[in-house]
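Query structure, 231 tokens:
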């Protein structure tokens, strides 16, 4: 395969990763909206949509395997193809979190929500926003964004902790609230994991561009120290 043709194939794969990412982003937004409205039918549709997400992931994986087998890539090309395999796996897992929230909504049945949802939709929106920017950084191999974005996971963690404290207050007030509090806590946990997996995508993007494989997380990272010192 000519280099130009190979690069065209790579671009097609990247475009398909963005499509898969959009499907996952929509699933996350839709599943929280269905929970907020207690729309069980919408949650059932999300379960069906998850099968489409899984199918898309496997289609991309098949193309990547063919490229690896036929091109025997080295260096940057190998890192790109191998990391893209990891990234589509991360996206499928995020789709599973959306499916998990849909299942929770269905299992709650006729139960009303313990409280109106405010911070949970904020968690979902923040996670989707981070995911969108992480995938754009992956496509462009944008090191600045890939290194900076994981720090925003702290905002999602803060929302999770706030939700946890609030739900525990309801439980303390009345132990009968335990089950309904647990449902919402699991929803928040799923959304918190979405942000964690965005960090994994950022780490893979850094690996593609630099060959360095390392965790990127807190404001204590060397990157942020250099930024602060103007290096």
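Result returned for the query:
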């Amino acid at each position: 395969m000519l280099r130009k043709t190979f690069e065209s194939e790579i671009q097609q794969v990247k475009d398909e990763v963005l499509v898969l990412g959009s499907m996952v982003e929509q699933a996350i937004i839709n599943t929280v909206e269905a929970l907020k409205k207690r729309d069980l039918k919408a949650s059932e549709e999300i379960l069906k949509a998850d099968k489409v997400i899984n199918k898309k992931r496997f289609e991309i994986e098949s193309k990547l395997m063919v490229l690896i087998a036929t091109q025997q890539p080295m260096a940057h090309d190998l890192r790109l193809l191998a990391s893209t395999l990891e990234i589509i796996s991360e996206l499928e897992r995020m789709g599973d979190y959306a499916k998990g929230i849909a299942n929770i909504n269905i299992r709650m049945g006729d139960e009303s929500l313990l409280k109106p949802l405010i911070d949970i939709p904020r968690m979902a929106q923040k996670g989707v926003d981070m995911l969108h920017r992480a995938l754009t950084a992956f496509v462009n191999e944008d090191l600045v964004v890939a290194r900076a974005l994981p720090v925003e996971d702290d905002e999602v963690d803060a929302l999770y902790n706030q939700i946890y404290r609030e739900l525990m207050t309801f439980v303390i007030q009345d132990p009968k609230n335990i089950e309904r509090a647990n449902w919402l806590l699991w929803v928040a946990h799923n959304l918190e994991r979405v942000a964690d997996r965005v960090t994994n995508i950022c780490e893979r993007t850094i690996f593609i561009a630099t060959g360095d494989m390392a965790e990127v997380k807190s404001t204590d990272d060397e990157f942020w120290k250099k930024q602060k010192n103007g290096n």
